UniProtKB/TrEMBL annotation, chains A, C, D:
Belongs to the ammonia transporter channel (TC 1.A.11.2) family. Pfam families: Ammonium_transp. The keyword Membrane applies. It is found in: Membrane. Residues 9-396 form the Ammonium transporter AmtB-like domain. Gene3D superfamilies: Ammonium transporter AmtB like domains. The lineage of its organism: unclassified sequences, metagenomes, ecological metagenomes. Keywords: Ammonia transport, Membrane, Transmembrane, Transmembrane helix, Transport. It is a multi-pass membrane protein. The keyword rRNA-binding does not apply. This is Ammonium transporter. It comes from hydrocarbon metagenome.
């Protein structure tokens, strides 16, 4: 089969859309922190993307997608993109490479939630390189390369496990290692620019169409299904989180957009396997699960500051499970629990928990290692001054 | 009624605590603005590659409260207690004389005569 | 005919582009209000989109596009997307569904202009559901389903009537029911963040390519024509409004971008029927018509606050008429007035006025009904405090 | 060959992406100036785009792409888009026209760097019309029409010479004619909103995928290569500028994003001719070259205010040369210096220097002419007040 | 010449009216800042599901005008008239003593001697 | 120790120079806010199609410095020198009495007793 221009056009643009999600995360997070750390959050997103872009080209793509070693990792056959062709079936191999690259970059950007307002840039670069190599690349290999999850038949259409469980639980581990922000709990640490968070959320929702529909790797009915269920789930998550927070007080816009992201995360692994009506359920429950997780985190006094764990980690977990429940053969060829296939449900849980455990544990070790050698955290003075001035010598205002 | 203007520069994170503490003392009226500032110590010196780089301006909130002269001390003490963390940058409170305070809205809800 | 990957790729991305217009409207409007209502305008846009997303999937799409009942409305054959296929001719039916969904969501977001800075969120949700169901869905059926306008031969390529006349005149009706903002006329109510309005305008211009070119439902010459005339008309509208406001004073950027939007609105119904040179005329006149409408609105003391009526309503009206004037068979198969086809011109006027009257009247009734039951408007205290705090418990600054 | 829907879909969307770069430039620049000129920078970008949009349709496209007159300019065969067809080979001719239009509009927007915070809007419009007609259109004809550069075999895949060298050196010439901002050198003139600059940079990076990959004019392997090397070069430039500025102090985010833009500029002419590994070199060196140019400009006391010269001009120059060095026949059919083809290297240098000299000289003359007749610069009072109020009667704050 | 500092907190929407009214009285110099504030009444209490939620900080403009002592009353009256709506939140005007006012720009357009 | 509040309105571009000049005199503590202002001359009149349009509000920085009374003159002179350009809009410096200054952070790093 040769290259199809329609498929190629689609995935090229999808890759661009997913790229835009990385600054989208930066804006989303940047609006949620205090003004003195606004630039820092944006810069971390860009730096994550740039660092991973090179890592991926040099060897990351190969680790994830080159021929398998023991079900765990790819070999170095594709290092430096050797043998990655501009030809391919449907789309060029090289296009698959860059489409995967933008996912890898985004994932590291999501992780910055766990160290917001207190991380040293230099240490983050080192950590990020290690994390992408030792956490993201293996997970991508497991689920989408020739790794054990793929062999087991675990379903992860667009990255619920690889991207969201991994980044969410990594953020949690990081937050545990780096410790709470000074004054967390005692002070009120308020979002300084909610409109920027909403704009970031809009870019995420927009880019997510590329993320999920593009994961069909073709401009076909499957892509259309993914696109449609993505929007439905996002809308449902928006409304359930809004409603739940309304019951407890007023319907804030941060809750609204967080619900939308929760819905987007939850549908991610399922987008190529479930139908529109199931997407309402997945998104609606996703909004509630993530809102509950957030309340739990706050109650536990955990400073996983910008809720990557609650939204991406727990939303991804629910999505993986939900895929096992709602999958229907008419869409993706595989049935889930409600269509009588309990074993798929079990596989989903095993794969999700394995990914969770792996991402959490390895991140914990990496974070500790970086902390003990380079120091992950800025000094208290720098934290007080804010990372914009302390780390970047710049100021968002003035 | 003699009044004083109490101007407090506090860390933004402590605003809610200060406000609540003032409310408990029956002090409600205030005007708040976003400012940046540094203390007498030349701000904080960040160590950067061995050199110390002074950091000048850190986001703060400025609270202006016109209070009865007799309440000024209470207000100062209340702010001091609530804004305190013991770390650099806890802030300053200034008191300045006020000669008159006028309410724009006349209480009988009629426009002021021309 | 099977699915064409090129067409499918194109409409998928166009749907994403149109989705981005909804937060674009939120930013555009949010910059124009006072700071204390910035979040409110953004949140209303997101909520409009989320609510309509579900309504559309549940039954809205069916009302608009299922088999006809009396020329007025579709039946419920496609409710819950039953029978909406992932197959189709050129593009999957399901893709047509989602492409139409993003239009419906956007339209409700435009309507928020009429209630800016004073609407209760809860009442807006109820109103929005009713409005989409009773105003938008029928109009979409008339023009694009099997309704009477389509049967009559009225032309509305991408929604000049369905989207813009309807939302613009609905905003006017809403504004009449809800009443002026406190202090309107007496105070100066100034835009608080013009750069955000310009950014919103940029996203609108960008997304409008998906809106108009995507309405060809294929990646073909017609789509290219729509894309080209869209940009030309926008540019012409930008420059005529700018020039007209320059004559009266200084060339403000709000006028500039409003002229761009006016040009975009005006070309919307015409984009598949007119050639590039006619697009200059349509856009140029569109800028002037809408600027004139704005001046009239201000002179009349009407508080249709963010000028959806002047720009979308009157721009859409001009566009419908202009389509009847400038249509040329070489592009869309049908000639207009200047090519000797006066009957098309008449049809356009009839259809536009009917849509206008229907949208205005039904909106008036719905708004009154919601106002008398739930109350459309916040209390005067809440309006003074601002909707960000009063309705959402949040603040855009600090 | 008929129209290919995949190619057409791709280039349509790419044109939309490139359009978004123009407000992206406005945001990028707007964040870098003082608050009182924020609206001005955004408005100049929109106005540039609108003015060029009409110029291009009326006669600009014809000057660039109609049959050749003496290797220098196109004739008027395509004026008013006469004979520009909705049919074509692969993509419709009319699509090529609009894809080129968005490039022309963007280029003029980049030029505004040289007159930031002190230009009269009316004079800029006159200058812009002249500049596009007398500088941009000929250069586009030379490189991409039937002009002498194309005949010579000079390579400029996506506009390193036509767009970046021309706009960068034009900005330099303009800055020399209009003179420094009041207080430049004596005062500190600081960026007022770095997050907006970063957002603008994100939109540029995003749009650049359309810019470079779209220049393949098809959704094929070449487009994929262009997309991939674009991202790699941007990432490499981001990191080298960041590193270089880190060595001299702290790693600022403006340097980071400027490095990204430098990498994007540098790869632009090369994107269809070099492989991914060469792209690392081109981007990395690009970041350093442009950073060096910026330091030089500052040392010379030149007020080319927003560094279009350093980033676009010098980055474009390096890119043209780099294309001559790294081109490889396996990608674009032509080898460069390191593959033994020194003559291509020489051709690249000749073409780049000719474009540089032409753009600089003609801009100098045009700027002088406009300055002596209409006055390019606002009064000192207006400059003090800021262009937002003085030229547009608006204010970004409040 | 004895001066007073008149500091008025007004609603942003009334700024143009206040400015014009002051101009009519020949008062031009002023410094304006964006602030947020609440009055003595604990701000406004929004009813929310039966409970009253106090709302604290509402956007206001702060005007600082250094005026001749003799003009202070006129300025206060002028602002009061122009800023009045009769609704909550009309604002406050404070008068404080000023000891000296210095113009940075020397009138003979030469730099101040070192 | 008697204190004065020196409030200077300067052009934003001159802030670094003013700050440096003050540092040279050993003056560090200050609070800075972004304001807009116009001078006595009704702001600047821009000529626009023959008509002169007054332009009101131009971005400025406001510096508040609480200084020892004896330092006030030095501070004024220092600011005046550093902020001067000789062009319109160079700014104003006001001095106002301060009755007390309190530091929130107690020097022994223990919370203030309740
Ligand atoms: N002399 C002063 N004049 C005006 N403002 C001051 C002065 N000293 C301190 N401030 C304000 O008080 C804030 C906190 O000061 P302080 O607690 O002394 O900071 P630090 O502990 O860092 O020295 C400063 O950021 C500044 O806004
Ligand atoms: N005691 C005070 N000290 C400082 N500022 C005050 C005081 N009282 C009122 N203000 C300012 O004046 C503004 C308007 O006050 P006021 O008209 O009393 O509001 P309201 O009518 O809502 O009580 C407040 O928002 C606040 O900024
Ligand atoms: N009477 C005043 N009261 C308060 N602020 C003033 C007064 N006069 C001037 N200012 C402040 O000082 C700034 C600079 O004033 P000035 O140098 O007189 O400006 P200009 O030279 O344009 O007249 C003004 O923008 C304003 O903020």
């Amino acid at each position: 089969m040769a290259i199809d221009t329609g498929d190629t056009a689609f995935i090229l643009i999808c890759a661009a859309l997913v790229m835009l999600m990385t600054p989208g995360v930066g804006l989303f997070y940047g609006g949620l922190v205090r003004r003195k750390n606004f630039i820092s959050m944006l810069a971390l997103a860009f730096i994550a993307f740039a660092v991973v872009s090179l890592q991926w080209v040099l060897f990351g793509y190969s680790l994830a997608f080159a021929p398998d070693i023991g079900g765990f990792i790819g070999n170095l056959d594709y290092a430096l993109l050797r043998g990655v062709s501009l030809e391919g079936e449907g789309i060029p191999d090289m296009l698959f490479m860059i489409f995967q690259l933008v996912f890898a970059g985004l994932t590291l950007a999501i992780v910055t939630s766990g160290v917001a307002e207190r991380v040293k840039v230099s240490s983050f670069i080192v950590f990020g390189l290690l994390w992408t190599t030792l956490v993201y690349d293996p997970l991508a290999h497991w689920a989408w390369g020739e790794g054990w999850m793929a062999q087991l038949g675990a379903l992860d259409f667009a990255g619920g496990t690889v991207v969201h469980i991994s980044s969410g639980f990594a953020a949690l581990a990081l937050a545990l290692v780096i410790g709470r922000r000074v004054g967390f709990g005692a002070y009120g640490i308020e979002p300084h620019n909610i409109p920027m968070t909403l704009l970031g959320g809009a870019l995420l929702w927009f880019g997510w169409f590329g993320f999920n529909a593009g994961s069909a790797l073709a401009a076909d009915g499957l892509a259309v299904n993914a696109f449609v269920v993505t929007n439905i789930s996002a809308a449902a998550g928006t409304l359930t989180w809004l409603a739940a927070s309304w019951i407890r007080g007023r319907p804030g816009s941060i809750g609204m957009i967080s619900g939308g992201i929760a819905g987007l995360v939850a549908i991610t692994p399922a987008a190529g396997f479930v139908d529109p009506i199931s997407a309402i359920a997945i998104g609606a429950i996703g909004g509630l699960v993530c809102y509950g997780a957030l309340l739990l985190r706050v109650r536990k006094g955990l400073d996983e500051s910008l809720d990557a764990w609650a939204v991406h980690g727990m939303g991804g977990l629910w999505g993986a499970v939900g895929t096992g429940i709602f999958a229907v053969a008419a869409i993706g060829g595989i049935d889930g629990l409600i269509y009588g296939n309990a074993s798929q449900f079990a596989i989903q849980i095993v794969a999700a928990l394995a990914a969770l455990a792996y991402a959490f544990t390895v991140t914990l070790i990496l974070a500790k290692a970086v902390d003990m050698t380079l120091g992950l955290r800025v000094s208290e003075e720098e934290e007080y001054v804010g990372l914009d001035i302390a780390q970047h010598g710049e100021s968002a205002q003035g | 009624m003699a009044m004083k203007m109490v101007t407090a520069i506090i860390r933004p994170e402590k605003f809610e605590a200060v406000k609540r503490a003032l409310e408990e003392q029956g002090i409600y009226g205030m005007t708040v603005s976003e400012v940046r500032g540094r203390g007498e110590q030349k701000g904080i010196a960040l160590k950067y590659r061995g050199r110390a780089i002074p950091v000048d301006l850190i986001p703060k909130l400025r609270l202006d409260l016109a209070v009865r002269s007799g309440d000024a001390d209470l207000v100062i003490r209340t702010i001091k207690r609530a804004a305190w963390t013991g770390k650099f940058g806890d802030g300053r409170i200034f008191v300045m004389p006020v000669e008159s305070v006028t309410k724009v809205r006349t209480d009988d809800a009629k426009p002021p005569e021309r």
